[in-house]
Amino acid sequence: MATQGYVFSNKKRNGPDDIDGGDLKASKKGMLLPVGPNSWEDDPAAAFASARHEFGEHGGVNMSIEASATFTVMEPETMRRMFSGELGPDRDFFIYSRHFNPTVLNLSRLMAALEGTEAAYCTSSGMSAISSVLLQLCSSGGHMVASRSLYGGTHALLTHFLPRACNINTTFVDIGDLELVKNAIVQGKTKVLYFEAMSNPSLIVANIPELSRIAHDKGVTVVVDNTFTPVVLSPAKLGADVVVHSISKFISGGADIIAGAVCGTASLVNSMMDLHQGTLMLLGPTMNAKVAFELSERIPHLGLRMKEHCKRALAYATRMKKLGLKVIYPGLEEHPQHELLKSMVNKEYGFGGLLGLDMETEDRANRLMHQLQNLTQFGFMAVSLGYYETLMSCSGSSTSSEMNAEEKALAGISPGLVRMSIGYIGTLEQKWTQFERALSRLRDYGPSTKN
């Protein structure tokens, strides 16, 4: 089934089964705003102001939710033409919401605007986005090269599931060693280079431009997980081919939604929606239209939220360092990739909303988190990130528990590493006082003070 142009076109059908089309026009259903020549280069938030605004059915400033699973046509011949690929969502023709849904399609346009890609499509989870794009790009017998510092679920997918179920194998490397990455790529066999823009949980920053150049020289597609740094980093602008997200995190911001996205070229995203070979179409990781509506209302203030997350993370990391704690944060000058990150970030958004606090042992990490949550209310012991409250977890025994001891050591995950997603509720000074009070209660237990 041909799906050319479906996922990013802004055309709207003029009337019932109007298959001849016409010039692109602003309508009550969707308004196109002029795009300035430097809007994307200057600030990713400007892309939102230039994206099509979808109005509601009765002229509401918010779009309507298209909750239908299936869609009707006015003429029988139209359905045949839809299934043959002649007519599609680019002209406002929809078949079934597992394929395309207007509300989800609008959120996908916003995600493409956020990442500066031709197209995007939103899925039911971040892991479904990752698995779908990798399975589209890599067939049985294929090979991938990936960072050894990855989210535990992704690491398990590449290490265990794909080799067993799909005969797809992965070579894990230190993503900071460019020569090692180059040597790991087998020209003609390696299909994908996969890494996180900022690794979970060790906060290693990837040299996206150089890694992309190395991969492209050997004909390899670069897939980057940008979950930790939306708005802060723009991997596609830096050379990546595909950007994936767990929208559940910073983009949602409410810790109440599970969702994902694939952002890339129109040809890739359309191939993933193909009736016969598309992973998004055939595996069915469909996003609910009501979820897409809620997320569409949150994306416009993502930039404001990220600025505050990042501002507080830098402030806390700086103060923790002065207290003699072993803190990991790419915004600190002593972080090994600080200058690299400075060279890649979109200005004014900071250096990320997460920091690592290495308490060396799991016992010390657990004691600190207990004090921070149960006695001073600094934050919550919970996985995930991007919430308005600070979320804390001991990564080695939680979100990276899928990795064995050797894999954790290679990824830079110590037993006592506390990953903190810094929130913005309350005042900065109020929350810092809560942190200091919790730390003072640990003196009898001897918290780590190694630099």
Characterise this structure.
With 451 residues, the chain is an alpha/beta fold. The chain folds into two domains: 116-298, Aspartate Aminotransferase, domain 2 (3-Layer(aba) Sandwich); 301-445, Alpha-Beta Complex (Aspartate Aminotransferase, domain 1). It has helices at 39-42, 44-50, 76-83, 102-115, 126-137, 152-166, 178-184, 208-217, 266-272, 279-283, 289-298, 302-322, 338-344, 362-374, 405-410, 428-440; strands at 30-31, 53-54, 119-123, 143-147, 169-173, 190-196, 221-225, 242-246, 260-264, 327-328, 354-358, 380-381, 391-394, 417-421. The chain has a seven-stranded mixed sheet with strand order 3-9-8-7-6-4-5, with helices on both faces. It has a five-stranded mixed sheet with strand order 10-11-14-13-12, covered by helices on one side. It has a two-stranded antiparallel ribbon with strand order 1-2. β4 (143-147), α6 (152-166) and β5 (169-173) form a beta-alpha-beta unit. α2 packs antiparallel against α4 (102-115) and α4 (102-115) packs parallel to α11. It is globular, with a radius of gyration of 23 Å. The model is unreliable at 1-6, 8-12, 21-39 and 447-451 (pLDDT under 50). One of its GO terms (cellular component) is cytoplasm. Its cofactor is pyridoxal 5'-phosphate. Residues 1-26 are annotated as: Disordered. Belongs to the trans-sulfuration enzymes family. GO terms for molecular function: carbon-sulfur lyase activity; pyridoxal phosphate binding.
